[in-house]
Amino acid sequence: MAADRSAMNGRGLGLTVAGQPQPERADAARNRKRIIDAAQRIVRSGGVEALYMEEVAQAAGVGVGTVYRRFGDRAGLAYALLDEREVELQQAFLAGPPPLGFGAPPVERIKAFLHALLDRLQEQSALLLVAETNSPHARYVSGAYRVHHAHLAGLVEQVRPGSDARYLADALLAPIGACLVTYQQDVTGMSLDRIKSGLDDLVDAISKPEN
Amino acid sequence: MAADRSAMNGRGLGLTVAGQPQPERADAARNRKRIIDAAQRIVRSGGVEALYMEEVAQAAGVGVGTVYRRFGDRAGLAYALLDEREVELQQAFLAGPPPLGFGAPPVERIKAFLHALLDRLQEQSALLLVAETNSPHARYVSGAYRVHHAHLAGLVEQVRPGSDARYLADALLAPIGACLVTYQQDVTGMSLDRIKSGLDDLVDAISKPEN
DNA sequence: AGCCTAACCGGAAGACATTCCGTTTACGAT
DNA sequence: ATCGTAAACGGAATGTCTTCCGGTTAGGCT
């Protein structure tokens, strides 16, 4: 399981790249909503640690099996909870004003984008941690990662033409993993600003002309 | 648990940075060895998926509790199994011949080091995946990461003086996480050479003079 | 040699995630 | 309306990891 997470939370929008997966049956859609509401309620009151699949099911008034059929696994559910904010984020860099959106020079857009990801991480680190932790590839398989990657690769291509932009995009997203960043902050006491500066420096390095 | 993994597999050497944690009792040391041997046997025959804590315990002729007291959790055990190779690696870049060891220009040493990490990852991806997956911070808390980080930071400092070398070291290690790399290779079909080239490019970018 | 205690031991109990499968239901086709 | 079937449902069962705790023991000290 968790293999095709993208097909799973397909109705979640932001997290999926989806090729219209075929409509959901009425009862299924209703339960999906109930489950998300219940999960949100639980997280709000008790934090992510309290997000037990069985409790979610009970709070939503469905069986555990239903939660799994709908979201694949715990990570999938976590992603679904992140979706709302993810959609905002995507709109901001796809259609919003500069520097995140179109209009600013690519270097600035990259920096703004990475900063935005970090800010989001600040708010939702616990949830992201769960989402990234269960099943090793969860993060990358999620539609969100693909969208971020595509966006970033496009910008990198402009800033460092002829490079392997797709690889560099992965490399720039890697330091923004929830695991690393929370470690940097919580364990090594690195400040958010320091992290942002470090990333900016990296981006500058990449965008200097090849020769 | 898993909080102080570094203190856990302390006798593992390579993975720990250890401040001599105080000697282990004779029976404890004996059991540690038995457990590691058993675990190695199991992994060799059935792969990491077959590494059940209870089986390890049984094969080692000890109780499960003992495995946990000795290694903290499954990730800790996995790290212990990686230790032998890790020690080799550390000796290679700390005391071995160039380009990994002292003698080559810093840029080359960085590249060689990252390539070495990737090569190691190729051989032991399954084990590394387990080690990194359970408990989000496992990788960073491990002594191995700290050693790698310190080594890399030193080199980065030479190559890009005045930068935040410690941050950049994190950023260079991030794309070599087992999760990302196995994803790149297994899911997106990226070749090892491509990954290495990408990293080399990144390193070159970093080492160009600031202006 | 005998004592004391911190460190160890084993394995049953507990906690969750995930799967399985027999039953029920939505809804397009007839 | 009725029917047939793919899709959904619930929740007991299963599989693992991890914790707990009453009993044991190594080894420093006297």
What can you tell me about this protein's structure?
- The structure is a homodimer of 211-residue chains.
- The first copy, chain A, is mainly α.
- Chain A contains eleven helices and no strands.
- Chain A has helices at 5-8, 26-46, 53-60, 64-71, 74-95, 106-133, 138-141, 143-159, 165-173, 178-187, 192-207.
- In chain A, helix 2 packs across helix 4 and helix 5 (74-95) packs antiparallel against helix 6.
- The longest helix of chain A has 28 residues, at 106-133.
- Mean pLDDT of chain A is 91; it is low at 1-7.
- Chains A and B meet through helix 6, helix 7, helix 9, helix 10 and helix 11 of A and helix 6, helix 7, helix 9, helix 10 and helix 11 of B.
- The structure holds a DNA duplex (30 and 30 nucleotides).
- Chains A, B: This is TetR/AcrR family transcriptional regulator.
- Chains A, B: Pfam families: TetR_N (PF00440).
- Chains A, B: Residues 1-29 are annotated as: Disordered.
- Chains A, B: InterPro entries: Homeodomain-like_sf, HTH-type_TetR-like_transc_reg, HTH_TetR, Tet_transcr_reg_TetR-rel_C_sf.
- Chains A, B: Residues 29-89 form the HTH tetR-type domain.
Largest sheet report of chain A: none
Average residue-wise pLDDT of chain A: 91
Summing up helix and strand content along with how strands pair, one would put the structural category of chain A as mainly alpha
Count of β-strands of chain A: 0
- Helix proportion of residues of chain A, in percent? 55-70%
Radius of gyration of CA atoms of chain A, rounded to a whole number: 18 Å
Protein name (chains A, B): TetR/AcrR family transcriptional regulator
Pfam families (chains A, B): TetR_N
InterPro entries (chains A, B): Homeodomain-like_sf (IPR009057), HTH-type_TetR-like_transc_reg (IPR050109), HTH_TetR (IPR001647), Tet_transcr_reg_TetR-rel_C_sf (IPR036271)
Organism (chains A, B): Saccharopolyspora taberi
